[in-house]
Amino acid sequence: MTTSVAAVDLGATSGRVILGGLEDGRLRLRHVARFPNQPVQLHEGGRLSLHWNIAELYRSVSAGLAQALRDEPRLASIGIDSWAVDYALLRRGRMLRLPYHYRDGRTARGVEAVHGRVPAVELYQRNGLQHLPFNTVFQLAADSEEGDLTLADRALLIPDLIAYWLTGEEATEATNASTTGLVDVRSGQWDTALSDRLGLPRDLFPSLVHPGHRLGALLPEVAAGLGASRTVPVTAVGSHDTASAVVAVPAADDESAFISSGTWSLVGLELDAPVLTPESLAANFTNEGGVDGRVRYLKNVSGLWLLSESIRTWEGPGATDAQRTSDLAALIAEAAAVARPQPVFDASDERFTAPGDIPSRIAAWCLEHDLEPPRGRAEFVRSILESLAAAYAATIEQAEQLSGKRIRTVHIVGGGSQNTLLCQLTADRTGRTVLAGPVEATAIGNVLVQMRATGILSGSLDALRSVVARTFEPVRYAPKAHAPSPSRAGHWVR
Q: What are the start-end ranges of the H helices in 232-320?
């Protein structure tokens, strides 16, 4: 690679640093670092709370970037993406505490406080977001109730925090800001009137920047610590990982839906304008910012978290990541061979959000709905994948009806695109062709935006996606003629 950029891609369970370059019009990616992202529990305020170990995460990012710079001293840019909604509170540039994990249980008070001042219907008209109890606005309201905002003069979302430590520059990238609940869905600007009504500091977050914006160069002392022979710019990308993943969806037309399948499944469409109808609110669809001003009209559906957390329960805390990966591959093969009909449960039920014994919760859900629970690990895996596919199908049907767009093809990107059983079940239940891949969609979208910003590439989103299509051949899944029709949870797979 003669000219490369580095994508820092932080997921809820692991992170990676990937070098991306262009050769003969095709992308070339190389992993230079992969590391776990493990939250920590702390006993504070009379309860156990869940936090991100952000210092360890930054150490791992720095080690990965140092390796990237050794491999590619002429690195053209660095871009950072991560999961959404979570943030750190700072005062005079110093972090006040470890950022809370979105799965921490403290936000119920925040939901009550926000809806007590701004009804849910009005909130949707202002920010266009589906209701998720961990949305940033609810987390901040919980912080306010606890007095944590009295000292803070700044909040930085996770990728913006990493960028700040690298460059010393404070900014809020717009696609991730759109998930906070504090951005006006129509104007794309901070809704200061909403912040005022909620009693939140209107200048808590720094100014908005958009993907492609040059945030700043590595601080000299940071560059020296990374072993860089020169300074390197940090470029804003679609810092919400789904925004970057959607850039890498190799859609050939306007009749496609996407499923970004990882810890969560983000199921939806790309639109030119938000959908804010009462029906959209009732269906709990969200309107989030995308690259180049597009709208990601989607719904959060539970994802591979159900599998990974189930395996964690079965194997116990001592199991290694390699063991869990091996177990998952074997379990999926066994699940594909399961002949006994399996129950379809509501994969988005909030009882499945917190860490813990997912199989026991699935069994309890089934018993509550007069269904026989799965028996054994393979049946649980089959039930989970059937339930996810059914949720995908129902969500795609809703998206089609609410947006008025016709959907012919479903693109699955991210880790779930490697799950052959899930992809086939999705084709079966949606009755549409599924195109699976690329796996590293988030890192690819991150790389593409950096390349365009640095002049390695040029053109529209369609031009960027054409590079993806030339580089990665998707795996095609056609719906089977005898496949079950899409249906709601609470039944047996036939």
A: 241-247, 278-282, 305-315
- Please state, in angstroms and rounded to a whole number, the distance separating the CA atoms of residues 490 and 31: 42
Rounded-to-integer distance, Cα 367 and Cα 200, Å: 43
Please, what's the b/e burial string for 25-61 (b: 16 or more CB within 10 A of its CB; e: otherwise)? eebebeebbebebebeeeeeeeeebbbbbbeebeebb
CA quadruple 314, 315, 318, 324: dihedral sign: negative
Cβ neighbours of residue 14 under 8 Å, at least 6 residues apart?
A: 34, 35, 36, 37
Is residue 125 packed enough to be buried (19+ CB in 10 Å), middle (13-18) or exposed (0-12)?
Answer: middle
Q: How far apart are CA 39 and CA 48, in angstroms?
A: 12
- pTM, two decimal places: 0.91
CA atoms within 13 A on the CB side of 214: 12
Q: Cα angle at 225 between 220 and 227, to 5 degrees?
A: 95
What are the tens digits of pLDDT across the range 427-455?
Answer: 999 999 999 999 999 999 999 999 999 99
- DSSP code of 251? -
Active site residues per annotation: 241
3-state helix, strand, coil in the chain (%, to 5): 40, 20, 35
